[in-house]
Amino acid sequence: MDSVVGSKVMQQQEQTQNEDREVILSVRGLKKHFPITAGIVIQRQVGAVKAVDGVDFDVYKGETLGLVGESGCGKSTTGRTILQLYRPTAGSVVFEGKELTTMRGNELRQMRRRMQIIFQDPFASLNPRMTVGNIVSEPLLVHNVMSKNERKEYVSHLLEKVGLNPFYINRYPHEFSGGQRQRIGIARALALNPSFIVADEPISALDVSIQAQVVNLLEDLQQELNLTYLFIAHDLSMVRHICDRVAVMYLGKVVEIGPTNLVYDNPLHPYTQALLSAVPVPDPEVEEKRRRIILTGDVPSPANPPQGCNFSTRCPVSFDLCYQEPDPPLIEAEPGHFVACHRVL
């Protein structure tokens, strides 16, 4: 009984904290459709890949929001569309009170100083022909920040901040390990002193022994520089460790979002339940009693999603309404915990 009361008190506290916190990023109805064309001489659009198909969420200042889901669900595309690296097909992205989707030219260029990205692959995201000093200082050069001597001193400071020897400034990317390269990418992202960073699976290409070091670095930098992260990942155990809230995506849509502890302890959407059932538990007794949910079939093509709910073709608890009605909206099932499922409604 005490544990139930304690859980309710914690939920109320989390809701009050969220109401008091400042929303740094607000995403509404975000869509990114890539056209499918046919024809050799005269090309015409014959369809569209609905990579992101109506995403809604807020990110609070200073928090880490985890974005999870299987490969191809639209996580990375969502992150890049928020930053306007991909221009959205529809929807609204309000960052620090300003609408990004209508910005062009120099206005958008100035906003990009406030938001940066850490790419997934540390081997492909660094120019092999540029030295570390040139890579990290390139954002400063593009935005015409600081003099040449000031830039050199500042880059050395950034390298030291991410745990690299500042004397590496004249070395090339091929001289570094994967973990060191990702640190260089982090230093580049910090160069313009942003307030919001999209971390696009920053540890998935690294050895397990290095992953914890990079995650600890990101957490330390967040505390020191008051950063806000959108942390895209596959590793659900790592997401639970680093994220304040988590959003679960399936086939271009967010199906569940809420405080990390609520989502992990009480997953409401069948897809979230299936994902979490696949996460190993270090306790053999608990692991033996757990029920593993095995999803049947393949993920539908984003070019031809199901007529009803996107998850209906694989859902173990689907019923007639799931095949007839489109995806339900996100409904607040408990304080701060939202889910899009006909069963919950």
Protein architecture, described:
The strands form two sheets. The protein has an eight-stranded mixed beta sheet with strand order 6-7-8-3-9-10-12-11, sandwiched between helices. A four-stranded antiparallel beta sheet has the order 2-1-4-5. The longest helix has 19 residues, at 2-20. By secondary structure, the chain is α/β, with parallel strands linked by helices. Helix 4 (132-142) packs across helix 5, helix 5 (148-161) packs across helix 6 (178-190) and helix 6 packs parallel to helix 7 (208-225). The radius of gyration is 22 Å and the shape is globular. It has helices at residues 2-20, 75-82, 105-111, 132-142, 148-161, 178-190, 208-225, 236-242, 260-265, 270-277, 284-289, 320-324, and strands at residues 23-38, 44-60, 64-68, 90-95, 98-99, 115-118, 196-200, 228-233, 245-250, 253-259, 331-334, 337-339.
